[in-house]
Amino acid sequence: MAxxxxxxxxxxxxxxxxxxxxxxxxxxLVNPLGLDEPHPRLSWELQSRTRGQRxxxxxxxxxxxxxxxxxxEADLWDSGKIDSDQTxxxxxxxxxLASGQVCWWTVQVWDKQGQPSGWSTPARWTxxxxxxxxxxxxxxxxxDTTPLHTNRSTLFLPPARHYRKVFEITKxxxxxxxxxxxxxxxxxxxNSQRVGDxxxxxxxxxxxRRVYYRTHEVTELVQPGLNCLGAIVADGWYAGYVGYGLxxxxxPARTGRSFYGKTPALRAQLEIDFTDGxxxxxxxxxxxxxxxxxxxxxxxxxxxxTYDARAARPDWCSPGGxxxxxxxxxxxxxxxxxxxxxxxxxCGAREVELGFQxxxxxxxYPAPPIRVTEELPAQRLTELRPGVxxxxxxxxFAGVIRLKVKGPAGTRLxxxxxxxxxxxxxxxxxxxxKARATDTYILRGDPAGETWTPRFTxxxxxxxxxxxxxxxxxxxxxxxxxxxxxxxxxxxFACSDEVMTRFWRNTTWTQRANFIEVPTDCPQRDERLGWxxxxxxxxxxxxxxxxxxxxxxxxxxxVQEAQRDFGAYPDYCPYPMxxxxxxxxxxxxxxxxxxxxxxxxxxxxxxxxxxxxxxASMSRFMEFRAATCSPDGLGTSIGNTWGDWLNxxxxxxxxxxxxxxxxxxxxxxxxxxxxxxxxxxxxxxxQRRAAIQAAFNKAYLNKDGSLKVDSQTAYVLGLWTQLIPExxxxxxxxxxxxxxxxxxxxxxxxxxxxxxxxxxxTWHGYHDLASRLFQSxxxxxxxxxxxxxxxxxxxxxxxxxxxxxxxxxxxxxxxAMNSFNHYAFGAVxxxxxxxxxxxxxxGPGYQRVRIQxxxxxxxxxxxxxxxxxxxxxxxxxxxxxxTRWRRTSDRFELQFTIPPNTTATVxxxxxxxxxxxxxxxxxxxxxxxxxxxxxxxxxxxAVESGTYRFASQLAP
Length: 956
Fold this sequence. Notes:
Blueprint (H helix, E strand, L loop, with lengths): L2 E2 L2 E2 L11 E7 L14 E7 L9 E7 L13 E2 L3 E2 L6 E2 L10 E9 L12 E4 L13 E2 L19 E9 L3 E11 L1 E6 L2 E2 L15 E8 L7 E10 L1 H4 L5 H4 L2 E2 L12 E10 L4 E5 L5 E3 L4 E5 L3 E5 L18 E3 L1 E2 L7 E6 L2 E6 L7 E4 L5 E8 L2 E6 L2 E18 L6 E7 L1 E2 L5 E2 L9 E5 L7 E3 L6 E9 L10 E8 L5 E5 L2 H17 E2 L1 E2 L12 H14 L3 H14 L30 H13 L2 H21 L25 H22 L3 H22 L11 H9 L8 H14 L8 H13 L3 H9 L6 H6 L41 H9 L1 E3 L6 E4 L17 E8 L2 E9 L3 E19 L6 E3 L2 E2 L6 E6 L3 E16 L3
């Protein structure tokens, strides 16, 4: 047997093919635990040194043990040889899988000559608890005698509770598996060891409908004899402060907290399988102990954490540990009885139940967990005034700190956080609004020093203010810990403009900071909600930076569950409270994320199952769309009126925007319907879109190609959605370019117009103008942010200006709505990869690739040297795609790689085919390349998989 990474491999077969499956994933994840999909989908990449290599067949083996991964011995599934080129989303089709089943799997493929590869290194997944009756554990809580908090003027920040159960193991253990969920946040411990490395378990959902559970393998943590299973449970999203609720007086008694319930609850089940075939289950029930005396005196996601190290007992999760704490018996969660309260939001006041309500469903968590993915040492330390120290971590991010300090017992340290500094060096905290974002640590007085990290909060920050130490600390006192859902990074980008290379890095930091359970708007202030408009403009950019398929699969369940009874998707999801004008819980371009995001995941990852599972919901939404538009299909302004949010002086009517998004929705629905065999639906949506276009042209289009709505965003949306007829598109594009020129080559677009602005310019022959806008250092621009110190993407073009600081371009901006970590304007990343670097999919799922770089002309940018080289990588669901190009005045060089089992259409800038050299040979002699045609000073080539080098002479 061979062994790789601690996993036994199947007996190797001498491979005859230069083609090897690798990077095995199940439901997008590597070796996931606790799935509840009855037919999990399997995917792999292929590696080969041979140009044009492809897969013609595969065979999958699934077994209960790795040594059974042999043809004829696989006891769960042997697919046999399947003639297919598919490498993604192969559904398990073997024996029915039981709760807790361990499934090892491997795959072999056959190449284009019909030769077999070797078997892949095995991967595995495990099943979760598939039936409600598999859960023997009960929901438990502490005896909650505290009245519901009703005083909005004061914060209510209860301590995290510690739960534990002592049990005995008397037989040899084969396997131990822990399943855990909570109403609130939970951190599990076993025999004084933390279980796993995930944060904020079990995750955020609409707790009354669905609660996630997590699965952990804990075989190495159990021991013969007495054991102790423990949990620390905090309020989290369930009972803590959420969003802007406190700011505007939403929630029970207008307090901004307890949106789902009053008292956190725990449900955990440890299954211990012994070598003799028997099983012991340790589940939560009233025999568990619970204590209020732990060190986590306050624990809130928005407000921060207070930790009294004098109360900490490292042995609390051990038999007899923390004997000086007051331990009580836990109670069934329902024993706390009913708590009724008046709930306020934009829909009015209504009475709600805040006592325990069992969720309708428990579901395995489907996304990568939140983890610490990076540590950031402090770069600079400044004493602002005696005893007040400011640490600069050099990077804006979301997470917490690790504190390393010494001092007398009882010393109280206050830790505050901020993204920016005022000119006098003070933290800029006005933009935090009602988020206290303050941690407190009370020293225990250890002469060797003490180390602490908050566990049940997070902040968005670059700067840390530390107050209370008796002596000046060193830089090592504060280290930043970066937190986010651990979505694998898939993109790399660099270009000749170092400022814009830095901007791309800013987008990745912004994305990571805001992919925490849901795609949030910002990580610092009292919001941190899954705003739909932000998500839909950014999702395609997000897919270039990271593998976000599982993350969005999870969030789109939240979106579906939050859908309003009348069909609209709300402003953000999950949706614990209303927002905006009374009764208007949705807004155009925000509500449309329910269509755009599933379509995007399908396009990027080839995932049709997502379409099937959301089709009924999307169809309800389209019925709402039809019912609320005008009779001829034009949009209306019945929803919230954010529109082209944060545009600079060029508002676009909501009715116009709504018409464009209505047309976009019908187009995307038609494509999804066609792909999934819903041909009648596809035809109906195409017909509906044609009617919208006719109404649009009648209402908004002039005969000369200009629009009756004369804003940059109007032209961008009209061209992007192709509502402007093709014969008039050149005139409309010229009008857009002229408007930008007359605006001193500056953008005036907001969230909605900025996303498609540069692509529209590139598509219509104004790529040099698009590149000039991209590289601009003048306000407003992406480069302006970078040259003014940004390390993440700003919420507003004028979040900071040299002239007015944080007061905006007008000098009177509301500083409270001013995030410096907000990804919406980072949607230009899509253009950077797709148009500038030239990497795109040609049909769903990157089986066919489009390589079409757009180099700007030398000297075309009077403000900055035009970008003359780009290097980019993107790890698609089929494998890594690489482009590298360089341009001089009359020569273009392109190197690229496309993965095995894919093909590409390459659009190579060139004067003529004879002016192209491929791999140092004439184009006609290059293996794997077929010349198709010339198209607008580009040679269009059909290319097989592999790595290529091209050089071409350009047209004058």
